[in-house]
Amino acid sequence: MSNEYDIAEDEAANWVIALSESPNDLSQQERFEAWLSASAINAEAWARTEFVYARIAEVKPTTEALWPQRKLDSMGETSTNQDELRTNTEKKNLFCIRNMIPVLALAACVALVLFPSLKLRLSADFITETAEQRTIDLEDGSRVYLAPESAIAVDFSMNERQVRLLKGDAFFEVSTDPDRPFIVDVDGARVTVLGTSFNVHRSEEGPVVCVAYGRVKVEGDSSDLFDTEILTKGQKLAVVKGGITVRSEVSPHEIGLWRQGELIARDVPIADIVDALRDYHSGAIVIPGSFAQRRVTGLYRLDTPEETLRDLAASHGARVSAMTPWVLRVSEK
Predict the structure, then answer these.
(1) Whole-number pLDDT of residue 77
(2) What is the tally of structural domains in the chain?
(3) Of the candidates 123, 145, 165, which is a domain's last residue?
(4) Last residue of a domain, one of 69, 101, 123
(5) Which residues neighbour 257 within 8 Å (Cβ) at sequence distance 6 or greater?
(6) CA 199/CA 255 separation, integer angstroms
(7) Cβ-Cβ contacts under 8 Å for 270 (sequence gap 6 or more)
């Protein structure tokens, strides 16, 4: 899920709290309606949140079996005291349940928003946030450069050095150790180092491996088999879901260029540039489909995302407006 969807779902969860606490606040209601109508993404996020809220409201209380039951006295008539006790207890339980619904709904919404991130954080040894890069020196002397919005897990043993790319981009400079192969696992592919520096990118379409120096062996794991490929300096391999591989050539000095905050694009959709900028922008970027599909070539700065986006839009007859401090919207003139 992209950043704009993450932000919308976070905001939707916050609206659950605000509207539950002050349901009669007209100015707040107006702000909520303005937020809801600001974008289709907000509307979709609210629909999912509202669905969870409604489903929780329908759940029967688990304490119902513990409520006092009517007991018949020796004459077969209902005891007045027991009946009153049951009625009062039911009212108290219903009151508690109704007041807990917003809390439970909020917990469910927060879980929906945070669970993927929480799961990633529990699995990762090293992780980066938006616009953050990290340089990691591993215990064997190898070095990993981690791009923004990326994560890896490291598992070294006596016989093998294994790194799992859980998200994003990582550039590896690997120390030679013939007795312990260095292996990078990424989304259905297994990259074995044969003495090299290389970049691995985990995309929605599948993993992409680029070799800046040396050689690597790329093979499929049991879930996504494909023929073993050997890559050397300046070669790139993209693995599409289903085991299809696409080889191409790339200039070695362009591999891992994100470490200098730069991106070289050659005849790619603007959408690809914007996707790269999202990892460096703390808010959402909304672009129209017609603009997103235009193809561009050029050198772009990643570490100044708003400035880059404005320059890109202006050069193609579009403009960028800040809908909120966190949302940039591109619109065609």
Answers:
(1) 45
(2) 3
(3) 123
(4) 123
(5) 263, 264
(6) 7
(7) 287, 291, 292, 293, 294, 295, 296, 312, 316
Is residue 111 located within the same domain as residue 168? no
**Residues 30-63 pLDDT 10s:** 888 888 888 878 777 777 666 555 544 444 444 4
Residue type, 95: F
Verdict on whether the full-model pTM lies above 0.70: no
Host domain of residue 55: 3-123
Q: Tokens standing for 195? A: 């003495």
Q: Considering all CA atoms of the chain, what is the largest pairwise distance in Å, rounded to the nearest integer? A: 95
**Strand residue runs (E) in 270-309:** 284-286, 295-301
Cα 310 to the center of its chain, rounded Å = 25
Question: Can you give the pLDDT at residue 51?
Answer: 59
If you average pLDDT over every residue of the chain, what do you get?
Answer: 80
**Amino acid, single-letter form, for residue 245:** T
Q: How far apart are CA 34 and CA 43, in angstroms?
A: 11
Q: Which single residue is written with the structure tokens 């919005």?
A: 149
Q: How far apart (Å, rounded) are the C-alpha atoms in residues 121 and 124?
A: 5
Residue 143 shares a structural domain with residue 239: yes
Tokens linked to 243? 């085991």
- The reply to whether 266 and 248 lie within a common domain is no
In this structure, what CATH number is given to the domain that contains residue 153?
Answer: 2.60.120.1440
Dihedral (CA of 276, 277, 283, 287) sign: negative
Are residues 136 and 118 both part of a single domain? no
Structure token pair of residue 262: 């730069």
56 and 7 in a common domain: yes
**CA-derived radius of gyration, the chain:** 27
Residue type, 197: S
Pair of tokens at residue 306? 């708003």
